[in-house]
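From the shared-data thread, chain only:
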Amino acid sequence: AKQKGKHLHNFYQEKLDSKGKREFMLCSGLNRETIFEELILYYQPVIQINTQTIICMDALVHWQHPELGLIRSAELFNYAERQRKLNTISEWLLQNACKQFLHWRSLGFSPALLGLPISIKQLENSHFIYRISHILQALEFKPEWLLLEIQGDPQQLEASVLEKAFNMLLFMGVKMAIDHFGAGALPLQYLENFTIHYLKLDATLIKDIHLNSQAEALIKSLVFLTNELSMQLIVQGVESDQQRAILESLGCTLMQGHLLAEPLTEVEVVSKLVNTPATL
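Structure, as C-alpha cells:
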C-alpha cells in the first residue's frame, strides 16, 4: 500500500511539475521579442443563412509556440492577461486583421464587418480605446466595419466605467457584440442600458437542441427579444444539418460554425472566398 501511495504521489507530482513548466514557458514566451512572429491569424465567416452571404469575418489569433505547439486563442488571451500583454496582443490583432480586411476589399471581397474579440476588462483602460481609434484612423479603416466582440462578465466593471467605455466606442462608430451570450450571468438590464448591436449565442445552448424543447423555446424567445431591441442574434457552434434546420425554423438567420465554414488562414480566404463576392 505504501509503494502504491508513493507511485501515486510521484504521478501527481510529475503532472504538477509538467503544468508548472508549461505555464513558465507560456509566460516567458509572451515576453520574448519574437512573440509576434509566432502569432497566426484565422478568420471564420458569419453567414446570413437565407442569402448565403458572409456578413462578418471573425478574426482569431493563435500562437504557434516553438516548443509547445499550437496555443489556441482562449488560452493565449488568458496568459496574455496574466502577463499584462493582452492590450499589446489585441493591438497587433487589430492592426493586422484590419490590413487584411482592406486587402480583401481591394480584391472585391467585401463582407460588412470584421469581428475582433476583446476582454471586458480591457474596456476599463481609456488609453486602449484611444489606441483602437488611432489604429483605425492610421489605416483609414471605417469604424462601422469593426465589430468588437466583448468576452467576460460585464459585472467585473463598475457600471459607470462600462458606460463611459461604451459611449467612447459608440461615438467612434464601431459596432458592439456580447460574445458567448448565455454562458454566463448577464443581467438583462445591460441589454436595456447599453447600445449593443449583436448577441453571439454560446455554442453550448444548441449542442443538443434536437433533444431539448426548452432550448428551442429559449432561442425562439431570444430571436423575439433581439428583434424588439433592434439587435441581431448570431448563433455560434452550428455543427450539423439538424441544428441548422431547427434554428432556421425558430427564426435564426445569422449562424457560424464548422458546418457552414471552417476557420481559414489569410491565404485560404483569398483562394476560397475572394472570387465569390461575400457569398458561399
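The mean pLDDT is 90.
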